[in-house]
Specification:
The chain is α/β, with parallel strands linked by helices. The protein is built from 17 helices and 24 strands. The longest helix is centred in the N-terminal third of the chain and has 18 residues. 50% of the residues are buried. Bound molecules: nicotinamide-adenine-dinucleotide. GO terms for molecular function: methylmalonate-semialdehyde dehydrogenase (acylating, NAD) activity.
Length: 508
């Protein structure tokens, strides 16, 4: 992100009142409809990963501030849950238009803090916007069920109702899309929402909160706190919070799932991944290699659905040199510091364990950004399943390549891996594709589609080690997560059918 862009986004944040300016902007909390400066003495630096400069400071909210935020959620729930569903829908109809109108501004705030390119940042906002659009069809999604005449004069019907105060804990890699998976779905169902964005990329969420307020969300319906472990523990423990949505690493997600569940909360936890692309020798070579390179290295591999592992099957094993050549041609323009150290050490672990680095991006230099944290496209060949570079999520621009004799071997390999977020098969044979989609134990499968993230009318259905919980994010499952069912059984008898004596046996 160039310095001019950084200056522009600082001005935007201050202009909207979501940051104030001292040495560097300080990000505010959003409590009861006001953007307020935290009284904390503990602050975290937010870096521009391309320059390593500190561009803002984010507070670790104090206990009093976090309690105040939840109290506002509880109070607002009383009126918001009783607000007509059509009025709630109207807020989100206005909201989707505001996001559309400001997509470029939101994207800039992402590029400056997260490091992805502007075009990719617009995609980040756009995929979140689609969830907001989907939330606008809540009226049909929240319909209950009815069964008339279950016995004489008796009917049963269900209401789908909000659960109460919900909370979201977001990761750094999609500063717009993932918060937008959370609070719009939760709020349109009638819940109020406490959000903790990633402390590494808070600004985009603050702009999104301002736009939601401008769209007419009443004060206190969305509150935002910042922080790290303390804030997370607070969310897991506070008795008023009924449901937690988490997206991030396995380390944090498993912990939050366990702590939140122990406290009686619903938790949906979307976690890490190791997504395999299986390349069959009958695949369209040109198309497959381009898709593989794009899906492995786009957004510096920092997408939970990035294709980070390729399995070349049979004759497709000979395509490796061409895969390396195409990857070499990519231009490097993003990175971030803690990620760089982790990525480089996992590449080295591959070398130490006997793998072969066919393309090495560790020492890449980007002119004008000598202090940036860049890693170029890297391909590791001769990888075997027990190597650390295969067993651990790298979450960087690194493609790990394994080989398989045939489709059965490839399926076994994928199913033995503990993660189940996404996978893709590249083939021109329908029967091969059908066998793969049927037998592979992964929640989201692409056939000649490298990153098969479902649109919001479906749900994000990562499985096995990539997910904990029962109900997935967005779509029908998202609505289920943010609602509970009340079942009413009612009897209206005509006068002359009045019971003459008490019925003491179980009705059958
Ligand atoms: P992260 O787990 O470090 O952070 C996510 C959130 O959890 C942040 O708000 C952070 O403050 C908090 N957190 C971090 N460590 C914690 C801990 N030890 N205890 C309690 N809370 C903690 O994740 P990240 O680095 O921001 O994001 C990258 C990860 O997210 C990758 O593993 C990626 O695969 C995953 N991801 C998954 C999906 C999905 O839908 N499955 C989508 C995006 C990202």
């Amino acid at each position: 992100a160039p310095a001019s862009l950084e200056f522009k986004i600082k001005s935007t944040l201050i202009h909207h009142g979501v940051c104030s300016f001292k040495d560097s902007p300080t990000v505010k909390l959003f409590i009861d409809g006001k953007f307020v400066e935290s009284k904390t003495s503990e602050w975290l630096d937010v870096h521009n990963p391309a320059t390593n400069e500190v561009i803002a400071r984010v507070p670790k909210a104090t206990q009093e501030e976090m309690v105040a935020a939840v109290d506002c959620c509880s109070k607002a729930f009383q009126t918001w849950s009783e607000t007509s569903i059509l009025a709630r829908q109207q807020v989100f109809l206005r909201y989707q238009q505001l996001i559309k109108d400001n997509i470029k501004e939101l994207a800039k705030s992402i590029t400056v803090e997260q490091g992805k390119t502007l075009a990719d940042a617009e995609g980040d906002v756009f995929r979140g916007l689609q969830v907001v659009e989907h939330a606008c069809s809540v009226t049909s999604l929240m319909l209950g069920e009815t069964l008339p005449s279950i016995t004489k004069d008796m009917d049963t019907y269900t209401y789908r109702l909000p659960v109460g105060v919900c909370a979201g804990i977001a990761p750094f890699n999609f500063p717009a899309m993932i918060p937008l998976w959370m609070f719009p779905m939760g709020m349109v169902c009638g819940n109020t929402y406490l959000l903790k964005p990633s402390e590494r990329v808070p600004s985009c969420t603050m702009l999104l909160a301002k736009m939601l307020q401008d769209a007419g969300a009443p004060d206190g319906t969305l509150n935002i706190i910042h922080g790290q472990h303390n804030a997370v523990n607070f969310i897991c423990d506070h008795p008023a919070i009924r449901a937690i949505s988490f997206v991030g690493s396995n380390q944090a997600g498993e912990y939050i799932y366990e702590r939140g569940s122990k406290n009686g909360k619903r938790v949906q936890s979307n976690m890490g991944a190791k997504n395999h692309g299986v390349v069959m020798p009958d695949a369209n070579k040109e198309n497959t290699l381009n898709q593989l390179v794009g899906a492995a290295f786009g957004a510096a591999g920092q997408r939970c659905m990035a294709l980070s592992t390729a399995i070349l099957v049979g004759e497709a094993r000979s395509w490796l040199p061409e895969l390396v050549e195409r990857s070499k041609a990519l231009r490097v323009n993003a990175g971030d510091q803690p990620a760089k150290a982790r990525v480089c050490s996992l590449i080295q672990s591959g070398v130490d364990e006997g793998a072969q680095v066919l393309l090495d991006g560790r020492n890449v230099k980007v002119k004008g950004y000598e202090n940036g944290n860049f890693v170029g496209p890297t391909i590791i060949g001769n990888v075997t399943p027990e190597m650390k570079c295969y067993t651990e999520e790298i979450f960087g621009p690194v493609l790990v390549v394994l080989e398989a004799e045939n489709l059965d071997d490839a399926i076994n390999l994928v199913n033995r891996n503990p993660y189940g977020n996404g996978t893709a098969i590249f083939t021109t044979n329908g029967a091969t594709a059908r066998k793969y989609t049927h037998e592979v134990d992964v929640g989201q499968v692409g056939v000649n589609v490298p990153i098969p993230v479902p649109l919001p009318m479906f749900s994000f259905t990562g499985s096995r080690g990539s997910f904990r919980g029962d109900m997935n994010f967005y779509g029908k499952q998202g609505i289920q997560f943010y609602t509970q069912i009340k079942t009413v059984t009612s009897q209206w008898k005509a006068e002359d059918a009045t019971l003459k004596s008490p019925a003491v046996t179980m009705p059958t």
